[in-house]
Specification:
Layout: H1 12-25, H2 28-34, E1 40-44, E2 50-54, H3 55-63, E3 73-82, E4 85-93, E5 97-108, E6 111-123, H4 134-150, H5 153-158, E7 160-172, E8 175-181, H6 182-194, E9 203-212, E10 215-224, E11 227-238, E12 241-250
Parallel strand pairs: 1-6, 7-12
Antiparallel strand pairs: 1-2, 3-4, 4-5, 5-6, 7-8, 9-10, 10-11, 11-12
Helix pairs in contact: 1-2, 2-3
Pfam families: Lumazine_bd_2
Protein name: Nuclear transport factor 2 family protein
Organism: Pendulispora rubella
Length: 259
């Protein structure tokens, strides 16, 4: 189906640039064109406490900002793009601090939108964040894969933040985009386990895993019943270790604009 909005973003970079513009102009109207309305941003404060902000409170923050301070510099980099899914890194520098983001961007029926983001705030004088320990991230990913094979809801839960959302893009026929909580996935696993179903038919690979400081990202591939799917994951390094904070998954061979 074609995008329902004639002004929809036609590339992931356009959605990210709209996000930058919304922040620089303190405009919730522009922000709504950049983010899916159910999107969240997640971060850890200096003490390691987890925070999450939905779109509605973010709109209020933008619309009441006085004065509105635009960034001194902004950059973006496409870490990975395959079909209707992209993983993007964004940096925004202000006078005494900067933000480092990882963004999940999807081609929805309303064009390319940011589905979720994680970020870290770095103050002036802070040392550059150390690269993430890839082995630690891969350990969590291996547990996620084992949970899928065994349909183990407890193991699945141990690898995710409890409010993690999975955005599915062309995961099912006729469904270009849908969001599901990790709790819904855990319920599916529990039901399949009760039916003694075996999930080991699906063949998984970790294609990459990386990060910086308290934020990370990964890409997985799975072939199930002859169809290849990918997962783009955002992670946070909590006091309990790395956890999956948000995800986009689906069939990269299909494009929403062609459906």
């Amino acid at each position: 189906m074609p995008p329902s909005n004639a002004s929809a973003h036609t590339a992931p970079e356009q959605a990210v640039q709209a996000y930058f513009k919304a922040s620089d102009q303190c405009s919730s109207q522009i922000l709504r064109s950049a983010f899916h309305p159910a999107a969240h941003m997640l971060w850890l404060d200096k003490a390691g406490a987890l925070h999450s902000r939905a779109q509605l409170p973010w709109w209020r923050v933008l619309d009441t900002a006085s004065p509105c301070r635009p960034a001194l510099e902004r950059t973006l980099r496409i870490i990975d793009r395959e079909g209707p899914m992209a993983l993007v890194e964004a940096n925004s520098r202000f006078d005494t601090y900067r933000f480092h983001d990882y963004l999940l961007v999807v081609e929805s029926p309303d064009g390319w939108l940011i589905a979720d983001k994680v970020f870290q705030r770095l103050e002036e004088g802070d040392a550059a964040p150390a690269p993430a320990d890839e082995a630690e991230i891969r350990h969590i990913l291996d547990d996620k894969i084992r949970a899928a094979g065994a349909h183990d809801p407890a193991l699945l839960a141990s690898t995710h933040l409890e409010d993690c959302i999975y955005s599915a893009v062309h995961a099912k026929s006729g469904t270009p985009y849908v969001r599901e909580s990790v709790s819904e996935w855990a319920a599916k696993y529990a039901a399949r386990k009760a039916r003694n179903e075996d999930g080991h038919e699906a063949k998984w690979r970790i294609l990459h895993a990386a990060g910086s400081g308290t934020i990370g990202h990964a890409k997985l591939e799975v072939v199930s019943r002859g169809t290849r799917y990918i997962d783009h994951l955002l992670l946070l390094r909590t006091t309990d270790g790395w956890r999956i904070a948000a995800a986009v998954w689906g069939n990269p061979a299909k494009l929403t604009s062609e459906s």
